[in-house]
Amino acid sequence: MCAKEYKQDKRGKTRFVRLDYSLLHEWERLALSPTAQALLLRLCMRFNGKNNGRIYLPSREAGDALGISRNTVCKYYQELETKGFIVATRRASLGLEGKGRATEWRLTHLHAPDGTPPTCDYRQK
């Protein structure tokens, strides 16, 4: 897909995902699987600068994007959470009307909306 096909912000600029080399080195050190890396990138794409802690990506949608089943996606969410790259802030639930709500995540390498600095939990693993 060409960058022109993506929505632009008010200033006419396209969005991007920032990945520090320190984060990429942690992927290697912790032997993060390629599919988990791709899932983490998908979660990073959902970050808009203000929503860390409220980032959601339903497993069905993630599975479609990654070309795997939605049940397999849960394995990679668990890998990211175990290795400290993401933290669940609100777990998935099924509402009274039968409409489900996906888990909301916080990316540990990014600051929180309230100004709290990144926790980088993966460095303690």
Classified by CATH, the class is Mainly Alpha
CATH superfamily: Winged helix-like DNA-binding domain superfamily/Winged helix DNA-binding domain
What's the CATH topology name? Answer: Arc Repressor Mutant, subunit A
Catalogue the unreliable spans: none
- Using only C-alpha atoms, the radius of gyration works out to 15 Å
Secondary-structure-derived class: alpha+beta
Overall shape: globular
How are helices and strands ordered from N to C? Answer: HHEHHEEEE
Task: Tell me the total number of β-strands.
Answer: 5
Number of helices: 4
Write structural notes for this entry.
It is a single chain. With 125 residues, the chain is an alpha+beta fold. The chain has helices spanning 21-29, 34-46, 59-66, 70-82, and strands at residues 55-56, 86-90, 93-94, 100-101, 104-107. The chain contains four helices and five strands. The longest helix has 13 residues, at 34-46. The protein starts with 20 loop residues before the first helix and ends in an 18-residue tail after the last strand. This is Helix-turn-helix domain-containing protein.
For this entry, give a set of tags.
alpha+beta; three-stranded antiparallel beta sheet; two-stranded antiparallel ribbon; WH_DNA-bd_sf; globular; single chain; 125 residues; Arc Repressor Mutant, subunit A
